[in-house]
Amino acid sequence: MASVTLPISISEVNSLSDEQFEAVFANVIELWPNAAKEVKRKRPFQNVPALCEAFQTYLEDITLEDKLTILKLHPDLAGRLAARGELTAESAGEQRAAGLEGLTPEQKKIMDESNQRYKAKFDFPFIICARENKVQSIIEGLQRRYSNNKEQEITTGINEVKKICKLRILDIVKN
Ligand SMILES: NC(=O)N[C@H]1NC(=O)NC1=O
């Protein structure tokens, strides 16, 4: 497969082979290449917003089971994978942008405890679009959203996945 040099334009997106499209958009939803397999069939796209919209619609239309699987594929923020350097490149960049690499020991303890408590209640990790937040708003979100019910948190989590997805697409395709 010919490699693709990023970023690309929307007309280049429309001209990619199916295989190239799947490879380029494989991780716009964390560790969920199935989305690109579906969305490639919706080509051609008029513009970048239409491409983003197709991924958002995909996320709305999948089964509850797939939504839960997607939520569970996300790494904890400032968690074990981050400490081991085992995040995807995308997630590592997002966590860095939010300032999560520079937590004080006290903030790290709060994050660890709050992440654990959240996961014990909902059975999936706390998800927030890190690039639209900073350490303080992430910690506040973790604590505030803990009091929601599971249905609310599935909806909120998937909405955050949509924001993460859109920013990842905008890193790939120039507007
Ligand atoms: N847990 C969680 O929110 N993880 C994600 N958030 C984000 O912006 N990138 C991620 O991997």
TrEMBL record:
Oxidoreductase is among the record's keywords: no
Recorded superkingdom: Eukaryota
GO cellular component, one term: peroxisome
InterPro entries with a match to the protein in the record: OHCU_decarboxylase, OHCU_decarboxylase-1, OHCU_decarboxylase_sf
Entry GO MF terms: 2-oxo-4-hydroxy-4-carboxy-5-ureidoimidazoline decarboxylase activity
UniProt-listed GO biological process terms: allantoin metabolic process; purine nucleobase metabolic process; urate catabolic process
Start and end residues of each Oxo-4-hydroxy-4-carboxy-5-ureidoimidazoline decarboxylase domain: 14-169
EC annotation from Swiss-Prot or TrEMBL: 4.1.1.97
Record's catalysed reaction(s): 5-hydroxy-2-oxo-4-ureido-2,5-dihydro-1H-imidazole-5-carboxylate + H(+) = (S)-allantoin + CO2
Localization (cell): Peroxisome
Keywords: Decarboxylase, Lyase, Peroxisome, Purine metabolism
Pathway named in the protein's UniProt entry: Purine metabolism; urate degradation; (S)-allantoin from urate: step 3/3
Predominant location: other
Family: Belongs to the OHCU decarboxylase family.
General function of this protein: Catalyzes the stereoselective decarboxylation of 2-oxo-4-hydroxy-4-carboxy-5-ureidoimidazoline (OHCU) to (S)-allantoin.
PANTHER family: 2-OXO-4-HYDROXY-4-CARBOXY-5-UREIDOIMIDAZOLINE DECARBOXYLASE-RELATED
Name of the molecule in the record: 2-oxo-4-hydroxy-4-carboxy-5-ureidoimidazoline decarboxylase
